[in-house]
């Protein structure tokens, strides 16, 4: 944990380190489920419901699996049902990273 920023960092399975960000989530969403061309990923999507962004539960399940593999964490099964927005997904992933990152 970076004590100056309070941000958890972790080395991913592909060698990258750092906190999980909205940019990481956007990349994983695009790679896993594709991007709905009507969705402006460059706009303010932090608090937009995943369903409004065109991502149903199956796409989110795939996204969670990719996050788990890349970041070496295990997300609770409830994440897919409970996490409704990109902001909350980023928060949940960083909470999990906090738990596995040595102080």
Kindly describe this structure.
- This protein has helices spanning 22-33, 57-71, 78-82, 86-100; strands at 10-11, 17-18.
- It is mainly alpha-helical and 103 residues long.
- It has a single domain (10-100), classed as ACP-like (Non-ribosomal Peptide Synthetase Peptidyl Carrier Protein, Chain A, Orthogonal Bundle), CATH 1.10.1200.
- A two-stranded antiparallel ribbon has the order 1-2.
- Strand 1 and strand 2 (17-18) form a beta hairpin.
- Helix 1 crosses helix 2 (57-71).
- The radius of gyration is 13 Å and the shape is globular.
- The N and C termini lie close together (6 Å).
- Mean pLDDT is 80; it is low at 1-16.
For the record, the CATH architecture stands as: Orthogonal Bundle
- Main β-sheet description: 2 strands, antiparallel
Approximate helicity band: 40-55%
Total beta strand runs: 2
CATH topology: Non-ribosomal Peptide Synthetase Peptidyl Carrier Protein, Chain A
Q: So, the CATH homologous superfamily?
A: ACP-like
Please identify the structural class as seen in this structure.
mainly alpha
Give the neighbour order of strands across the main sheet.
1-2
Content of β-strand:
under 5%
Mean pLDDT across all residues, rounded? 80
Helical segment count:
4
CATH class: Mainly Alpha
- End-to-end CA span: 6 Å
Rounded radius of gyration (Å) = 13 Å
Number of domains: 1
Shape: globular
